[in-house]
Amino acid sequence: MSNSFELSSSPEVYARTLLAQLKLRRINDIDSFVALLGLRIREVDADGFEGALVRVPQQLKGIIAIKRSIREEGRKRFTICHEVGHFILPGHGTTDCVCLTEEVESWRKSMPEQELAANQFAAELLLPYQEIRPYVIKRDLTIVRAKEVSNEFHSSLTAACLKCVEVTEERCAVVLSTAGSIKA
Ligand SMILES: [Zn+2]
Fold first, then answer.
1. What is the DSSP letter of 51?
2. Max Cα-Cα span within the chain
3. Rounded mean pLDDT of the chain?
4. C-alpha 139 to ligand 1 mean position (Å)
5. More reliable by pLDDT, 58 or 148
6. Type and span of the H or E element at 54
7. Cα-to-centroid distance, 62 and ligand 1 (Å)
8. What integer is the mean pLDDT of 36-41?
9. CA of 141 to the centre of ligand 1 (A)
């Protein structure tokens, strides 16, 4: 699978490529999705970490351990996709990953690079650009719209807001450049 990935690709491109390879437009059932990758989800009583990836040595398999006490479904799905990111993205090592609560779904610049990459990967996997576009295009972006997206895609509201803004900004940039070329 890794052969078809470009080394210089962004985490978002890896997420899109993965969905395309699995012939999925978006993730519905998260358990069957991770099963396609050789992963299983285990809920565990955890203190101090949100999720972890436990690799099965010598095999392309693993277990995603997830904190049982996470209440929000969107947060749970994000954390699972974050661990999938560590499993799929190149350079994320061959040993186990343990991810802290404050590092999952965080966009602070001071974050470790791999945690940020896993978050970018997870956001695109749960909220694929192509699927979000119809929700924000030709419509005003409001919190109501973001809420609609988070319900539809079972993501957290924060992740949905960020993705909607990202998609809208890209659209604005396209409109601006078109306007620019018309003037020129
Ligand atoms: Zn992580």
1. E
2. 61
3. 87
4. 34
5. 148
6. strand 51-56
7. 15
8. 96
9. 30
C-alpha span between 138 and 168 (Å, rounded): 10
Distance from Cα 148 to the centre of ligand 1, integer Å: 27
The rounded Å distance from CA 88 to ligand 1 centre is 12
Query: Bridge-partner residues for 55, per DSSP?
Result: 62
Q: Residue 183: in which H helix or E strand, if any?
A: helix 157-183
- 56-91 confidence digits (pLDDT tens): 888 889 999 999 999 999 999 999 999 999 999 999
Going by C-alpha positions, the residue among 116, 98, 82 that lies closest to residue 48 is 98
Q: What is the pTM for the complete model shown?
A: 0.86
Residue 17: CB partners within 8 Å, gap ≥ 6? 4, 5, 9
**Distance in Å, CA 114 to ligand 1 centroid:** 7
Q: How far is the CA of 103 from the centre of ligand 1 (A)?
A: 7
**Would you say 66 and 76 are in contact if contact means Cβ atoms under 8 Å apart?**
yes
